[in-house]
């Protein structure tokens, strides 16, 4: 997609205006990549969300939790020239990686992550335009600053662009 790949790890986020860049995160299982994009300003951002709720840990410099990480990513987008009304959102991940007898809802972290993220997006009045979530397999995603395309890769499956 692009010449420069900026890799983000679990709980990290990145915002870029460099049209030769794609933001990538690997190994999304129950974690969710939240990708914000302003197509006019060509500002893209991605957060690798690990858990739904911060519970007072207040880790200021990362995006580990949906309830604190998504707003931090949103604020960073605005600081980099994005207009709130133009920002669209794509998400990927949130898989159910383990099946346990009895189906404990505590193990449904992927589903809980997706629910928490969509709730925060609603509070921020951000429009979710595409999603590749759930199922039982991990994903690697690459988000293009130039086009806003999100390429989703999974072992043994064809590449999807959303």
Describe the structure in brief:
Pfam families: CheD (PF03975). Helices cover 18% and strands 35% of the residues. The protein has helices at 66-79, 109-123; strands at 4-7, 13-16, 21-28, 32-38, 43-49, 87-93, 127-133, 139-144, 150-153, 160-161.
Task: Summarize the structure in words.
Keywords: Chemotaxis, Hydrolase. The protein is α+β, with helices and mostly antiparallel strands and about 160 residues long. It has a single domain (about 5-160), classed as 60s Ribosomal Protein L30, Chain: A. It is built from two helices and ten strands. The chain has helices at about 65-80, 110-125, and strands at about 5, 15, 20-30, 30-40, 45-50, 85-95, 125-135, 140-145, 150-155, 160. The strands form two sheets. Strands 1-3-8-9-10 form a five-stranded mixed beta sheet, with no helix packed on it. A five-stranded mixed beta sheet has the order 2-5-4-6-7, with helices on one face. The protein is globular, with a radius of gyration of 15 Å.
Beta-strand proportion: 25-35%
CATH architecture: 2-Layer Sandwich
Described by the principal axes of the CA atoms, the overall outline is globular
Domain unit count: 1
Low-confidence stretches: none
Helix fraction, binned, reads 10-25%
Tally of DSSP β-strands:
10
CATH class: Alpha Beta
How far apart are the first and last residues' alpha carbons, in Å? 13 Å
Keywords: Chemotaxis, Hydrolase
GO molecular function: protein-glutamine glutaminase activity
Function: Probably deamidates glutamine residues to glutamate on methyl-accepting chemotaxis receptors (MCPs), playing an important role in chemotaxis.
GO biological process, one term: chemotaxis
